[in-house]
Amino acid sequence: MNLFDELQWRGMVYDSTEGLRELFATNRVTAYIGFDSTASSLHVGTLIPVMALVQLQRYWHSPIGIVGGGSGLIGGSVVN
Question: Which pLDDT score is estimated for 75?
Answer without folding.
Answer: 54
